Amino acid sequence: MPRLLTVAAAQLGPIQKAEDRPAVVARMIALMRAAKARGADFIVYPELALTTFFPRWYYEDRAEAERWFERRMPGPQTQPLFDTARELGMAMSFGYAELTPEGRRFNTSILVDRSGAIVGKYRKVHLPGHAEHDPTRAHQHLEKRYFEPGDLGFPVWEFEGGLVGMAICNDRRWPETYRVMGLQGVEMVVLGYNTPTANGHSRAETLEDRMFHNRLSVQAGAYQNSTWVVAVAKAGIEDGHHLFGGTLIAGPDGKIVGELDHEEDGLLVHACDLDATRFGKETMFNFAAHRRVEHYGLITQRAGVGAPLGRR
Ligand code: CDV
Q1: Given 34, 73, 153, 217, which is the most exposed site by the fewest CB atoms within 10 A?
Q2: Is residue 306 in a domain?
Q3: What's the confidence (pLDDT) of residue 201?
């Protein structure tokens, strides 16, 4: 008997600055109902799913950005999402900007079970971009201004009959993200992203290049850790800025099992057999048998590149 977890990758089209939380939550609920009708038990939404991708906007006074943050989860405007999840018996994961009671700010994702209880929280570790306004860039990417790096590591939870972990956007490009979860036996990594088509610098990267790197990162993470990876975009043109789509699900052999080809609200539903992760975990990527941790010290000792270790 396969151990199936039917997941819906719920891509969101653009969310304009003027669009309020209730309007976005209504779109998310519509996707959730459609996902249920297609047999999904678990729905995954993108990074910062409730708002426009506000880190592209510079606020000299950081407090002005507070309108984009959630002080409570669920709060009055997100409660209907939790109520619908409970009504439908649907587990979910989504990203939002978290403002803690102590005034700390994180780019956060949560895992919510079918009863509507939050059972897991992840705070984005790899924050791209910069902290100050950069006039040389075609557009700003100010995650380092508005968020602290996550302080919760990369936990994996027993969830929906499997082992599930989370990552957020830029995290998907770093092999460490997946490996730390792989070492906890992860069977499904869920992640959301907001990735601009233009990189903000003058160096030309085509949309094709960016889509290639998206697939490459997700597929490599899946294969090298023998896990499902569900990667969900917020896509389209937000207030004149383009985010690419490409929502996809990769299997534990690294192959893509489905991918969306539009930039609107939409679903990619797949029945993932969690037992399909066993083959890779027991053969090529049997970590206990093959990893040589005595040679991996630099990975945690150095953040940046240092002197070469080779001796003549
Ligand atoms: N939201 C992100 O983390 N976006 C980055 C962009 C800025 C490169 C990404 O890795 O997709």
Answers
A1: 153
A2: no
A3: 67
